[in-house]
Amino acid sequence: MRSARATIVAQSTPVGVGAIGIVRLSGPEAQNLAARLVSPLPPPGRAELCLVRDEDGQPIDRGLVMVFRAPRSYTGEDLVEFHLHGNPVLLARLLDALVTLGCRPAEPGEFTRRAFINGKLDLAQAEAVADLIEARDRAAARAALRSLEGDFSRCVRDLDALLREGRVYAEAELDFADQDVDDGLAIELERILTEARAQLEHLCRNGRRGESLRTEPRILLLGRPNVGKSSLFNRLVGREQAIVTPVAGTTRDLLEAEVLWGEFRVCLCDGAGLRTTDEPIEREGVARVWREVDRADLLVYVLDASVGWTEEDREQYQRLERTRRLAVANKSDLGGTIDEGEDGPVFAVSALRGEGLETLVIALRVRLARDPLVTGEEGVYLARRRHLTALDEAAEHLANASALLKKEGKADLLAEEIRWAQKALGAILGEDADHQLLDDVFRRFCIGK
Predict the structure, then answer these.
(1) Which of 12, 198, 302, 327 has the most CB atoms around it within 10 Å of its CB?
(2) Domains of the chain
(3) Rounded CA gap, 100 and 113, in Å?
(4) Contact 20, 84 (CB under 8 A)
């Protein structure tokens, strides 16, 4: 990261033609440099339609210009935004003019990094900015926004405050470190540690649920040849992606498609029908399906409703992990009765007529725990792996503290374990973050953010 005192500039809207293009600059010279292109510059906090010129005084475009004075800006510095027509030629001219006048092109995430350095955001909130931009569906976007608004950070700070209270009790005895903790103090410390561990468990649980929102869950359709897997795949995807013929073994390669069901995105997979075959290409297709079984979050075993459970179906179904499997009877339009499976009802559908698909999709969402009515999603945060690692580390130190309280009862050791738990929580918020961590976090951001 180059000098944090430089005035930086970047395009904040995606590259390409659009209705509006936004360029913003931030730093100590932001207003002075902007004033050389716009005269007069609007007063802070007000958007005005202005003629924007280049460094030679030639008109570039007419657009909205907004000035934000430090510290009341996104970065906590003086900041100016230009909202022009979204022609790449116009935006490039403006960027060139500002660089010529002394601005430095911003590095990835540098605006948000400055917001963190200037105390506008903690590190967890800063990371949530990128998570919100990259969210793949509404559930992920809501979880990221919750973190950006500070819900996750507030829970971490509340837990830290509780641990600070525990340290006060423990450190009060440090002058007598060779003595056991008295009964009254032990009872109070036990209450604090019990409550802290419960709060930490809640944070870990919701953080892990949020982490699962980062990638689309994978749903694999599998079953014997000619049960209508590819027809069902096409229906669920909403287009004719898989080739459908009456010939068994038509599907050889593994097919994948992203599907958006309302506000939830999933990756739907279809592959070769499961059977023993001497045909080498089809045999490889079957092998790929079984390899995909290990990667899938949900396994949808498709039966032929007009045939019912065959001995081969039952054998294949038994090979699937119980917690990830679900049975579907296709071709329900042909009649037949399907007994309930070992895991509950078998969902009857007709890929030909599109019947029963709505009920099936709801069941899939519930099984994937993507439905907010089922998950209680309001408590979910889009936690990152480093957050979960820090929470696990804090949990380990609190467990050690509880064990010390019950077995050894030494206040100095108790205080040290609590302090290490606090240090782990502080890492989530970016307290004492080193340059390497900040570089790792912000280099994944887009340049204009």
Answers:
(1) 302
(2) 8-119 (3.30.1360.120), 124-212+382-429 (1.20.120.430), 224-261+269-291+299-318+329-369 (3.40.50.300)
(3) 24
(4) yes
Burial of 58 (0-12, 13-18, 19+ CB in 10 A): exposed
Q: In the structure, what pLDDT confidence band is assigned to residue 288 with cuts at 50, 70 and 90?
A: confident
pTM given for the model:
0.72
pLDDT digits (tens, 9 = 90+) for 197-227: 999 999 998 888 777 777 778 899 988 888 8
Which tokens belong to 346? 């078998």
Any idea which residue has 């699937």 for tokens?
320
**Cα-Cα end-to-end distance for the chain:** 15
Give the residue from 194, 214, 54 showing the smallest Cα distance to 132.
214
* Environment class of 290 (CB within 10 Å of its CB; exposed 0-12, middle 13-18, buried 19+): middle
- CB-CB contact of 156 with 428 (8 Å): yes
Residue 31 contacts residue 44 (beta carbons within 8 Å): no
